[in-house]
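During the second year of the project, the team shifted from modelling isolated chains to modelling whole assemblies. The rationale, set out in the original proposal, was that interfaces cannot be judged from single-chain predictions alone. As a representative example for this report, we include one of the complexes processed in the last quarter. Its constituent sequences, exactly as entered into the pipeline, are reproduced here:
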Amino acid sequence: MTEIFGIPMQLLFGQLLLGVINGAFYATLSLGLALIFGMLNIVNFTHGAMYMMGAFVAWLLLHYLGLDYWWALLLAPIAVALFAAVIERLLLRHLYHLDHLYGFLLLFGVSLIIEGGFRYGYGVSGQPYSIPPELVGGINLGFMFLPGYRAWVIVASLTICFGTWFLVERTKLGAYLRAATENSGLVGAFGVNVPRLITLTYMLGAALAAIAGVLAAPIYQVSAIMGSNIIPVVFAVVVIGGLGSILGSIVTGFMLGLCEGLTKVFYPEASNTVAFVVMVICLLLRPQGLFGKRG
Amino acid sequence: MKTLAALLGMCAVVAYASGAAADLSDGKVKIGVINDQSGIYSDLSGMGGVRAAEMAIEDFGGTVLGQPIELVYADHQNKADIASNIVNKWIDEDQVDLISDLPSSPAMLAVQEIVRQKKRLVIVSTGATSDFTGKACSPYGLHWTYDTYALAHGTGKTLVEQGGDTWFFLTADYAFGHALQRDTTAFIEQGGGQVLGSVAHPFPNQDFSSFLLQAQASGAKIIGLANAGGDTINSIKQAAEFGIVEAGQRLAGLLVFISDVHSMGLQTAQGVVLTTGFYWDLDDKTREWSKRFFERHGAMPTMTHAGVYSSVTHYLKAVEAAGTDEPLAVAAKMRELPIDDFFARNARLRKDGRLEHDMYLAQVKAPEESKYDWDYYTILATIPAAEAFRPESESECYLLKE
Amino acid sequence: MLRIILLVLLAAAALLAPYVLYPIFLMKAFCFAIFASALNLLLGYGGLLSFGHAALFGGSAYVAGHAVKVWGLPPELGMVVGAATGALLGLIFGGLTSRRSGIYFAMITFALSQMVYFVALQLPFTGGEDGLQSVPRGRFLGLIDLNDDLALYYVMLAVLLAALWFLHRVVTSPFGHILRAMRDNETRVISLGYKPHHLKIMVFTLSGALAGLAGGSKTIVLGIASLTDVYWHTNGEVVLMTILGGVGTLFGPVVGAFTVVLLQNYLAETGAWVTIIQGVVFVVIVLCFRRGLVGELAPLLRRWLQREPAGKPAELAEREHA
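Output from the structure prediction step:
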């Protein structure tokens, strides 16, 4: 069996493929965060909580209404987006004229409320959520057994990432969004409802987080702390990619997934830290991130 | 001014102490249940532990030596510093006599130091480390339900005897995980088995796919999960995804509770082998108690819940028999009185504080084998009390050497 | 006259408090008060939000604990070691972040503190999950036996007052004035010939020293240094204390620290509720009481005492949303 650095080739390819899958997941998850920061200049600390709510809504839909995974993919993001709209209208809106750090702190507080609430209601052991029957099983690729669900995660993530990028960069709505960020006064003067665009952007970011949550539900634990666990890494992805750049977070997501995959093979204990090491190096050498716009 | 106040205070204390008719300190027995109410262990201990203690007090009659029994509880969130703060306050300010439950090995060890100095009893039910009755032992610390040695022995030795002689470990990279791996390895090698390899994963962790891949590649017959709580659940879930059990390897969960199985569902957890100190459906005695517990708590008891009930009941019996709540006298009575309830079979409380009792090797049923709610385990073997725990001859506890 | 009476009452309360309330709880609040004051120096007077101060606090807690337990240093040197460690970490953090500001600054400090957390997890001397336990209290200056909770209380009270006095001196010094000028208008400070990133490094180091003092003291009081101290939730907690109490005021962080520690104590039986309530407090403060308790009450108090208002307490500069 051929070996590279003492690791059999087969195992290495298997790990790299897993890294790509994780990377796809990171990319989808950080997309919403990058979108909100890019458009609104707000660091959405509730992103983890919305991801968790997406997974929980999927579970609730199954448990109480018998609606399966495919329904959840559609309904969970909508539900969470509506919730996000309420937060934006009721709370966040009042802080736009102030330093952005206040918005950051407000959302930090909101994320504590959401996480505490779910922890109180559901504990932390987690709720079972099975892989939808259509995706059970997998393909034997020779060097590893690829579960069907993981293959689906790659496909779904790429679709979502491409879809979002296209929406923001190539459609009229996206153009309005980008213009409103750069000069809201002027865009408002043209008769565009800027506050509504802002709410819409925040809702879109939340929906992206929620759909990542639904994707995660069958393979990770649906629990109140799932957001807390993943937030630091997602922040790292977004910062490395460039806080406002959608393309940046997609590319970085995949890249970090691969880095982590390699770390897990050679130095598994550090696989949680590698994201932050990369982030610090990046911030020192290229502070605006790989694809970022501001210095 | 301060001297006057101090003198007055001393007079008051002397007056109170001599006037008090009862032999109970402060005229009551106060029990404090401290565990994880909101974190990863909240389902296996949490409010269930509190309710078990409540049941024990009620079944005992609510009073001991004619004085009331009080219960307090707190959440230490699995943090040694929070646990220390709470226990210190309980002892200094709230006159708590017995501390119970106490998950999380670091918290256990921290509290052991406190009770050693301040001379109160602690009976651990949920916490795991065998060092509690080993090198960190004290005359005030009792360990009731299970420990890492018993888990390693039960699962490790018995599986090797049954033919599972090649192992690969998935280990949580912290003291508890490494201790579990180390203890289990000793039994595997003793039984003639072999550990083909291991991988340490960060604690806590969500994605185990790469580690499971390595386990699969090793070809080991048994994949040992030296982790607990959410890590174990995720490992098992993801193993199901990768068809590991279907392909022929077995999963040995070194620390799995029935609440974990309930949260995973039988579809995912089927076939997992584990060691437990209690199963609700073992016989009529366990069923009778467990059904009462279920009515209060809404879920079947884990071994730690049963352990809390058993230990609190036995403590109260000892206080009654000793005529006082002075810790060392009560501990001595606890060793003297026979212990044989629905939880502790063939039990003996040792000088190092370790309760020996029968443990059980169980396997999680497949969904089609389960006939009713919570019918989750098939008991594969009973590990007799005298063998299940670390023998006194091998213990590092100084109390055994005197 | 009224002012003197108030000061006397406050002093009496401080001296008699351990007879009424649980001394360990009071001392824990003192340590966090110093910690929050350290953050306040950076945030209120320097205008920089650090979301990584837990690393300075917790890292110093470990080193001080190690110094006292393993090297056998007396407690006062343990606190000095803590402050020195904090200063060193502050210097490093400051050096890495000084050219940024605003949200980037916060994010880098967050990432750095995550790294410190993982390092603490791996290093053997920290004891990993077990933490550093049974740190002895020793004798202060060889004279006062700190095992007596009461004696330790008065020592800690003195340490708190010393820390606050130090902070006061820094803030009212020429350095403090330039710092506040930089917070309000960095460009103008540059035009006056100052180098902001040197100032930022300086203030981070000082803030680190105070945070380190808090960490070292906490280890001695509670006898434990653990991963909780370096975990990122602690960052949020100390920011909460500072803002709740009043950013940019001298006593604000002290009030904030007491309030939060009190809350945690009260709600210890109900873990999840602590999180929810902390979240609610955060939201309410940020929306309605941005100047914090002291910030809102101090002007009222001053007016009542009929003194000239000494200037409005600071808040983060209100800027137009671009």
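Strands of chain A lie at 3-4, 7-8, 138-140, 145-147. Chain A has one domain: 3-285.
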